[in-house]
């Protein structure tokens, strides 16, 4: 019993000491102890935030302490009670209004002592409603123009977005789909028409909320990039000029303008084109040519020579291209039988020995291996046919191609032929240029360099018989004739081969 009274006395003394430490009876007579209690609770005062929140990011209700540990009372005052009420209830601002800063003042009091503590909080805006998402994406919605285009001058396709940053979907409707399709594809009016005004309406939707936004565009008409005329100085333009026709033939341009033409005569032809639009710029084969001026094509090769005419208009992206195939006639060479036969004289000498195992034909521009029977004279082991024995130089079609392949890969060297890798079997037209239409084979040998290797027999060509793909055309220098031979093993005919390449 005595111990229980002793413990009770100690407890009462401790309580009294604690009471007098914060101001005793609260009348302030003890020298500001209430103020000390206020100061202590002010220092310890904090706001309690819900999970994840902080003063810089408030999204949920907050808890205000109403009493302090030192016996103080605490009251709260918000400067924006619509966002944070005095009891800590939080009403987040709308998505449209954005985040809001709120100042909350706490008043800590005990007896006659009191003080305040200020808290600055940022309340995060509420998630956007469907209507707010629509409004935001509408405000930010724009059309993307290519190049230097703008709403007032459209000449290229436009880009129209199908979704907005706030999760909306955007549909587009054109009032003139022939000019601007709903997907932004632009088809400009013809140059005979006028510029076109097009209204594009965008519908922005999210959930049940939707709104529209209108864009007015001016699509510029096409520039006139047509030609007004084409005149050629030689030959005949075919078909007759029509601005809508872009491909022409100018033929025949004579092989030579000379009364007595020679094989090495040069030829030229002029083209005079005019543009339909005075502002248009014309180039012919890459050279700017003023409208109506003649463009001269020099050193025409025999056969096709293309003139490509391109018309543009500064500031526009469209072009028009016309192509003229200027065809220089193939020369008709004299037969060699008489001096009075019509045609063009052969070069004299016709063949030039290049000194490297090759011969240049100055009439055709073809390069031949100098040795007309290289298999027999240089590589007889290559020719070992079961039926005919060794080394006369006559081989099957497949072996002929194999021999040419070995020249190209460097296995066989017929002089300095390894300098070239594009040897091939001549076609029938190329072989015909070597034929002399006479009966005496001995007369032929005077024409060709290294004629001793030329055989008075059949030579392969690469030209397939049009009536039977298993046969090829062959030529005979003794008879100056053309025939057909089999090229499919095992029944391929045996013939000579004379490799050729296109010079240079």
Entry keywords:
single chain; 504 residues; alpha+beta; Immunoglobulin-like; 4 domains; six-stranded mixed beta sheet; four-stranded antiparallel beta sheet; 7 helices; 14% helix; 30% strand; elongated; disordered N terminus
Strand segment count: 26
- Main beta-sheet annotation: 6 strands, mixed
Domain unit count:
4
Structural class given helices, strands, pairing?
A: alpha+beta
Kindly report how far apart the N and C termini lie: 133 Å
As residue ranges, the low-confidence spans are 1-21, 24-32
Number of helices: 7
Radius of gyration: 50 Å
Assembly type of the chains comes to: single chain
The geometry reads as: elongated
Strand order of the main beta sheet, please?
10-11-17-16-13-14
Please, what is the average pLDDT? 87
Question: Into which percentage range does the β-strand content fall?
Answer: 25-35%
- Fraction of residues in helices? 10-25%
Would you write up a description of this structure?
- The protein has 504 residues and is an alpha+beta fold.
- Helix content is 14%, strand content 30%.
- It contains seven helices and 26 strands.
- Strand 18 and strand 19 form a beta hairpin.
């Amino acid at each position: 019993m005595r111990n229980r009274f002793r413990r009770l006395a100690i407890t009462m003394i401790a309580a009294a000491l604690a009471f007098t430490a914060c101001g005793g009876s609260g009348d302030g007579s003890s020298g500001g102890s209430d103020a000390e209690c206020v100061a202590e609770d002010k220092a310890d005062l904090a706001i309690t935030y819900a999970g994840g929140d902080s003063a810089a990011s408030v999204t949920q209700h907050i808890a205000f302490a109403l009493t302090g540990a030192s016996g103080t009372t605490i009251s709260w005052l918000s400067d924006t009670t619509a966002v944070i009420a005095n009891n800590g209830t939080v009403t987040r601002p709308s998505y449209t209004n954005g985040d809001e800063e709120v100042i909350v003042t706490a008043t800590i009091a005990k007896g006659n002592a009191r003080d305040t503590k200020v808290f600055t909080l940022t309340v995060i805006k509420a998630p956007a409603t469907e209507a707010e998402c629509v409004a935001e994406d509408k405000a930010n919605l724009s059309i993307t123009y290519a190049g230097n285009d703008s709403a007032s001058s459209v000449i290229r396709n436009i880009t129209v977005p199908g979704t907005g940053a706030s999760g909306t979907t955007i549909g587009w409707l054109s009032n003139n789909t022939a000019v601007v399709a709903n997907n932004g594809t632009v088809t400009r009016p013809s140059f005979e028409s006028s510029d076109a005004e097009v209204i594009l309406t965008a519908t922005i939707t999210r959930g049940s909320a939707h709104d529209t936004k209108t864009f007015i565009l001016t699509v510029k008409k096409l520039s006139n990039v047509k030609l007004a005329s084409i005149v050629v100085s030689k030959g005949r333009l075919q078909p007759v000029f029509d601005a809508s026709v872009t491909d022409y033939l100018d033929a025949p341009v004579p092989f030579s303008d000379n009364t007595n033409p020679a094989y090495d005569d040069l030829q030229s032809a002029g083209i005079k084109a005019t543009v339909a639009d005075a502002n248009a710029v014309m180039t012919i084969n890459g050279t700017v040519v003023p409208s109506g001026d003649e463009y001269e094509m020099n050193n025409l090769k025999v056969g096709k020579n293309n003139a490509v005419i391109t018309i543009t208009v500064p500031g526009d992206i469209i072009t028009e291209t016309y192509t003229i195939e200027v065809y220089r006639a193939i020369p008709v060479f004299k037969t060699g039988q008489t001096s009075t036969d019509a045609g063009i004289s052969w070069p004299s000498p016709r063949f030039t020995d290049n000194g490297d195992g090759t011969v240049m034909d100055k009439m055709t521009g073809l390069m031949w291996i100098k040795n007309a029977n290289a298999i027999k004279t240089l590589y007889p082991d290559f020719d070992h046919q079961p039926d005919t024995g060794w080394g006369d130089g006559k081989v099957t079609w497949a072996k002929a191609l194999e021999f040419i392949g070995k020249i190209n890969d460097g296995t066989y060297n017929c002089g300095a032929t390894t300098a070239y890798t594009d040897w091939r079997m001549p076609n029938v037209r190329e072989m015909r240029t070597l034929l002399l239409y006479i009966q005496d084979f001995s007369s032929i040998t005077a024409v060709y360099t290294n004629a001793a290797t030329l055989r008075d027999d059949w030579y392969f060509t690469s030209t397939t018989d049009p009536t039977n793909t298993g046969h090829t055309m062959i030529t005979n220098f003794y008879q100056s004739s053309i025939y057909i031979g089999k090229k499919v093993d095992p029944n391929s005919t045996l013939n000579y081969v004379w490799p050729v390449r296109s010079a240079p």
